[in-house]
Amino acid sequence: MTVRLPLFPLNSVLFPGLVLPLNVFEERYRAMMRELLKSPEEEPRRFAVVAIRDGHEVAPSAPGMPDPTALPERGPAAGFGPDPVKAFHGVGCVADAATIRERADGTFEVLATGTTRVRLVSVDASGPFLTAELQELPEEPGDEAGALAEGVLRAFRQYQKRLAGARERSLSTAADLPDQPSVVSYLVAAAMVLDTPTKQRLLQAPDTASRLRDELKLLRAETSIIRTLPSLPASDLTRGPTNPN
């Protein structure tokens, strides 16, 4: 079964259960938010987030380089090439917008939460904003997910301590961390300082246990690296900015 939803490409990966703040200023995404606001408040205002593989999150709005006379791209697929589906990673996440607030200048402040993983089937650029046909992906537990989650939580606490520095408090206490394996896997994937391809690999893992196994290896490797680089100002990397669009 597939669903069709507005598509919001970003230079980052959204995971189920994670909060996504957005500052929406491009016209194509303003149009998307205006359309979502037409839905009754009691209904979910959903759109899909996919990570960009090859393209630009914000379309050029000034003469291009190296040709200063080149006109900027326009339209819903601007910055994503002639075949937008090739510009995006194949697995994304549905976002449920809890807050969509329009500012006086016509831009929007949006606060959404990731809900369900989806596979990108096709992209339609015929309207004012991109829409996509999407296949929902179930989250299978896999083998030994519970035991793996416990190991990942232990490794994650060590990673946090190293990342924050010996003189700083840990970023979370045991009470702050969940114990449901799938929730653990997504929280750790989002919280680790990793590049987009690695986060994308974690998002599209075939099951929770596979994701947790991958995270355990990554946590041990990253903790070892941080241990050998005591001067790394890694605490600054834990404070992620709001997505610009």
UniProtKB/TrEMBL annotation:
Q: Which residues form the Lon N-terminal domain?
A: 5-223
One Pfam family from the record: LON_substr_bdg
Q: Which InterPro entries match?
A: Lon_prtase_N, Lon_prtase_N_sf, PUA-like_sf
Q: Output the superkingdom of the source species.
A: Bacteria
Q: Matching SMART domains, A to Z? A: LON
- Which PROSITE patterns does this one have? LON_N
Listed name of the protein: Lon N-terminal domain-containing protein
Q: Which organism is it from?
A: Streptomyces viridochromogenes Tue57
Q: What lineage does the source organism belong to?
A: Bacteria, Bacillati, Actinomycetota, Actinomycetes, Kitasatosporales
